[in-house]
Structure formats: C-alpha cells, structure tokens
C-alpha cells in the first residue's frame, strides 16, 4: 500500500485557483485541476467561493453519494491526506450491518433480543449478507441497467452454497445438501433461515433484478416439489436447484389475474388419455423469457388443474416491457396445442386450486419478507439524506414535517416485521396443509398492509428527496427506483383489494354461528 502524502490545511488553502484547484473532502486532499473540465456537475460548482482550497466535505455530501469517491476513476484524484487527521465517513462494507437507527430489524440491532432467532441464525445471516454483497450486489447494478438476465456466474455461485434450494424453504428437497458451507444442517433449516435469505436478496435495491434472480423458481417450483410425481421430480429438480435450468409460474392471463377461475388456457386429454393438449396465453410471467419449464394453471374438464409444461414445440415467449428492468424476464407466453404427458400433472386433476392456494401462501410470505426489508432500505436512505442535506440553512431533519414522515415510515416497518416474524413462527409450527388453511387470511392482510405501507413510505421518501427522488442516477437513485417499482409488490401474488377481501371472507367463515352483541 502506498503511503499518502500529508498536507496541512494551510498548504491546501494555497491551491485555490481555477488552474490549481485542490479541495479537502473528509480529511482527504483532492487535486481537481484537470478533472474540473470533466466534472459532471460542471466547472462553476467547483469554483464557488467556499470550495477552492477549502474543506468541501459538507458541500460534497449534499450533492453526491459516497460511492462516487470510491469509483476508480475518481479515487485517483486523491493526492494526500490532512496531517494528523483520519477520514470519518465509511462507505459500503460488505457483510456489515447498518448502524443507522431502524435500518435493521431489532433482532439484528445490538442490545435487543428476539424469541425467534438464535446464534445459528445470526451466523447464517452474516454469511448470507456477505455473500449477496460480494457476488450479487455488483451484478444487480449492472443487469438492472442493461436488462440482461442475471449473470450465470451468480446462479452458479448461489448453487455452490445451495441457495436456490434454500429459497424453496425447509423440506425434503434439502436432504443431503451442504447449506451455506455447513452453517446450518438441512434438519435445522427453518422458515427463519429462509426469511433471512428472502430479506437479504432485496438489499441489492434493484427490484427487477431481484425478480430476475429466479423469483420464477421461488413460485414455480414448489408445486413440483409438493405435488409432482417422484419421476418428474428426479428428472427436473436437480438441474433447477443447480441454477442450470429455469422454471416459472404461469397463471395470470390477459383475461384473468387474481381471478384464477376466470382463466382461459385449456388442457384437454388426447383420446388415449396419455397426453394433455394445452392452448392459451399467459401474461406477466416472471422469468418466462428464459424459462425451460412452466408451471401452468389450466382449465380442464374437472375444473382447474396445474400442469408442468416444458419449453418445446408450440411454446413461445415474448418479453413484456414493464416499469422495472427486463432482467426480470417478464414474458407473454403462448401455448399452441402443446402436447404434454399426463405424468406432468401436479396434484389431482381438477385439484389445481389447492395446489395454487398453498403456493400462494408461500409466495405472499416471500413478498412480505421482501417488502418489509425494502422499507428498511428506505429508512436507511432517508435517515442519511435528511441528516446530510441542508435546506433553508439547516439539515432537513430539523423540520418537524420531515420527522413526521420518518416516524410513519419507521413505525410501519417495525409493525410489518413484527407481524411477519409472528407468522413465520406459526409456519415453523404448522404442517403445509395447516398453513394453507390457517395462514391464508393472515398473509393476505399482511401483504396488503405491507404494500400499502410501502407505497406510502415510497411517496414520502420522494418528497424528502425532491427532484432526486425522481432521478435515476445520483443521490436519490434507490428512492427513484423503489418508488417506480413499488406497485409490483402490490400486484404480484394478488392485488391489494383482492387480498383484503380474501382475509375478511376467511374471518367471516370462522364466525361462530351463536355470536351476538
Ligand atoms: C472528488 C471530487 C468530486 C468528484 C469525483 C465529483 C463527481 C461528480 C459526479 C460523478 C457527479 C454526477 C452525479 C453523481 O453521480 O452523483 C457530480 C455532480 C455534481 N457535483 Fe461533483 N464531484 C466532486 C466534487 C464536487 C464539489 C467539491 C462540488 C461543489 C459543491 C461538486 C458539485 C457538484 C454538483 C453541483 C453536481 C450536480 C449534482 C446534481 O445533478 O444533483 N462536486 N459530481
């Protein structure tokens, strides 16, 4: 490591002209003489009265994210450090917990306790966070921007520690696998471990990429694992869990979304009864553009049946342009007389609704994990921004109206996480069938509440960030992205109003017949 030159502040002050332009940012000395013509913010900003030869820390952090100084092309501008001083501002440290108040759930905040998470969960969380920071975060920033599928390297790395398998939750599919380099055994792995993974995934702050990172598998594979024949499972599951083949869930259609009984894709049996012939279309299918397998909801003679379709003759996928990145692989899928062996039926013929309902619960729970964690990201960003940004001569957080917005954001996020942990505990203690019955209403309400809260917090965050909250680069980039992508959470896995109604109808069914005021 080269030792940096040291300067006194008096020495730096002498370099205060357009042709000899130094500044101090967080005790580091930068020579901007040649850079000034390339500065994206223009020359004049650098020549303002209190900048040349001065300490520009406050001015800099009012306009730039810290990561700007870490980019190699800008890092080189540093020529030294102020004698006897140390930089105080710390950038992103891979694997580290945030020390911003409320930016982590209580169980990850020093000094707080949890009835749910033990020491093993904590070690597991630390390893998963480091993994995502090291391998996934950089890829997320690239792919969200260029819209290409998440890199195969990332899928392979995830497969090495069996993350694809763990994202399916606890169960037989984990048997014999080494999880996260042995940090947890398949028998110990519970829904709290899965919650950790689902929450760490979203910290990359790239919603389209988050879905591109095989969200299709998270919702498309469980019906195969839970209802597929042993032959089907042994043929297709290993490659999927190794990140070599891809699967998606194909239920919603141009004609019907949350209303699964309104679906129009048909599956009819061939005369010999050995095959299904499937025709119809599916819309908004996450990972559909690159999927090898489709878990398809079909209208059959007996009602509604779920069937696994393999990419082949008669299957076509086209990308759909949505508000987030094409990296998610959102597709319009058409099935034109696709011939599928009846052995690919998942669950009973006509029993698709049970397959779907149990799957919906897990899908909605995953989405609640993600939404709860994304809202922490908002807190992290807003707490920092409102402390470092000055308006009317004072930091933004000196304004009561800003603090009121932060209060709402924090209270909602804490409530969601606490409710989520309670439901997760119930899941740990209920069979899959019991979960389908007892938790459908709870999860419907939690998802509805999470996504309404998220939309409110995203709107509040935009108000705090002002123009930067609608700008795709710079200080507000995560806020702009989140605000743009937040409606996805409120629609995928069931629209808010539909879920709210589902929860109430389930509660009504549980009303004792003799209940009176
Ligand atoms: C090492 C020193 C600096 C570097 C590497 C740098 C780099 C950049 C970059 C990359 C941007 C584009 C926006 C972004 O990505 O955040 C930017 C914007 C800007 N910079 Fe700098 N800058 C430096 C110092 C300064 C200083 C000392 C000032 C003076 C106040 C300044 C004022 C601005 C302004 C006004 C903008 C436009 C911000 C906006 O559009 O919101 N910069 N700078």
Automatic annotation (TrEMBL):
GO molecular function: acyl-CoA dehydrogenase activity; flavin adenine dinucleotide binding; heme binding; metal ion binding
GO cellular component: cytoplasm
Domain Cytochrome b5 heme-binding, first and last residues per copy: 4-83
Cofactor(s) listed: FAD
InterPro entries: Acyl-CoA_dehydrogenase, Acyl-CoA_DH_CS, Acyl-CoA_Oxase/DH_mid-dom, Acyl-CoA_Oxase/DH_mid-dom_sf, AcylCo_DH-like_C, AcylCo_DH/oxidase_C, AcylCoA_DH/ox_N, AcylCoA_DH/ox_N_sf
GO annotation, biological process: fatty acid beta-oxidation using acyl-CoA dehydrogenase
This protein's UniProt keywords: FAD, Flavoprotein, Heme, Iron, Metal-binding, Oxidoreductase
PANTHER family: ACYL-COA DEHYDROGENASE FAMILY PROTEIN (AFU_ORTHOLOGUE AFUA_6G10880)-RELATED, MEDIUM-CHAIN SPECIFIC ACYL-COA DEHYDROGENASE, MITOCHONDRIAL-RELATED
Similarity remark: Belongs to the acyl-CoA dehydrogenase family.
Protein name: Acyl-CoA dehydrogenase NM domain-like protein
